[in-house]
C-alpha cells in the first residue's frame, strides 16, 4: 500500500511564499500520478485547488500553483493571505485496485 | 450549479448497518466516476471507494473491503454507500466527490465535493 507523505505543519508570514510537498513511498512522484491538492478549513468540506500536477480549477486563486519538485509534487502559495490558513491535502492517483491515496495533510499557519 | 448533497449518516451501534446517499445535480451524472472519501475526527482524508459512470467498475479501500458496497442509480442521479458490520473506527464524516475526468485508465482528480454526512458508531 502506497504511503503519501506531507509536512505535518508549516508556518508562513502574510505576504510570504511557502511550498508544500507530497512524496510517495513507491518512488518519485511524476505527472503520471496526476497530483491533486485540496484546501480544508475547520468544519468545512475539502475544496479542490489543483489537478493533474499544475492545473487550476476555475475557482482557484492565482496565488496557488502546482509543480513537481525534486521527485515530489509541490503546492506553492505566493503572497500568502490570512485566509490561506488551513489544512492542505495532496492526492495521488495510481490506478489498480487502490487507485487513490491521500497524503496525511499539512497544517499551514499564517503568522 | 453543480452540487452534491450527502445524507443517511447517524448514530449506529457496533455491528450495525447504514446506507449513505449522495444526490447529484447540475451535471450529467452518468458520465462521471464518483468517489466516497471519509475523515475521522481530527484525522486526515481517507479514500473509501470509487465507481465508474456506468457502475460496472468498483474499487474499495482494503480497510473496508468486504464490509461496504458502492452503487449508483443514474436515473435518480444518486450515489450510495452501503456499510455493514460497522466498527467504532468507522466513525467519520463521509464525503462524496466527483471525479474530474478519466481517460484510458487514468483519472485526473476530484473536483466537486459534498458537505459530508456524519457517521457515529457507538454503543
The H-and-E topology of chain B, N to C, reads as EEEEEEEEEEEEE
Number of helices of chain A: 0
Strand fraction of chain B: over 45%
Mean pLDDT, all residues of chain B: 96
C-alpha geometry of chain B: globular
- Please count the beta strands of chain A (DSSP E, at least 2 residues each): 11
Uncertain residue segments of chain A: none
Q: Helical percent range of chain B?
A: under 10%
Structural class of chain B: mainly beta
Helicity range of the residues of chain A? under 10%
Alpha plus pi helix count of chain B: 0
Which band does the percent of strand residues of chain A land in? over 45%
Mean pLDDT of chain A: 97
Our measurement of the CA-to-CA distance between the termini of chain B, rounded to an integer number of angstroms, reads 40 Å
Number of DSSP-assigned strands of chain B: 13
**Category from helices, strands and their pairing of chain A:** mainly beta
The biggest sheet of chain A amounts to:
7 strands, mixed
Compute the separation of the termini of chain A in Å: 36 Å
What series of H and E elements makes up the topology of chain A?
EEEEEEEEEEE
Oligomer: heterodimer
Radius of gyration over C-alpha positions of chain B, nearest whole angstrom = 14 Å
Amino acid at each position: 500500500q502506497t504511503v503519501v507523505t506531507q509536512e505535518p505543519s508549516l508556518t508562513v508570514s502574510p505576504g510570504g511564499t511557502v511550498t508544500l510537498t507530497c512524496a510517495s513511498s513507491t518512488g518519485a512522484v511524476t505527472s503520471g500520478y496526476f497530483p491533486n491538492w485540496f484546501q480544508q478549513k475547520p468544519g468545512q468540506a475539502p475544496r479542490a485547488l489543483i489537478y493533474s500536477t499544475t492545473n487550476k480549477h476555475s475557482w482557484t486563486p492565482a496565488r496557488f500553483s502546482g509543480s513537481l519538485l525534486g521527485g515530489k509534487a509541490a503546492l506553492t502559495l505566493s503572497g500568502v493571505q490570512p485566509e490561506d490558513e488551513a489544512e492542505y491535502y495532496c492526492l495521488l492517483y495510481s490506478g489498480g485496485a487502490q487507485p487513490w491515496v491521500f497524503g496525511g495533510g499539512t497544517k499551514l499557519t499564517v503568522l | 450549479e453543480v452540487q452534491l448533497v450527502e445524507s443517511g449518516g447517524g448514530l449506529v451501534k457496533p455491528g450495525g448497518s447504514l446506507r449513505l446517499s449522495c444526490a447529484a445535480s447540475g451535471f450529467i451524472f452518468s458520465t462521471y466516476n464518483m468517489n466516497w472519501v471519509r475523515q475521522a475526527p481530527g484525522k486526515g482524508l481517507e479514500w473509501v471507494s470509487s465507481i465508474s459512470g456506468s457502475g460496472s467498475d468498483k474499487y474499495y479501500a482494503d480497510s473496508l473491503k468486504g464490509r461496504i458496497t458502492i452503487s449508483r442509480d443514474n436515473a435518480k442521479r444518486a450515489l450510495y454507500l452501503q456499510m455493514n458490520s460497522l466498527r467504532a473506527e468507522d466513525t467519520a464524516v463521509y464525503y462524496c466527490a466527483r471525479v474530474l475526468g478519466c481517460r484510458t485508465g487514468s483519472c485526473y482528480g476530484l473536483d466537486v465535493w459534498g458537505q459530508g454526512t456524519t457517521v457515529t458508531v457507538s454503543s
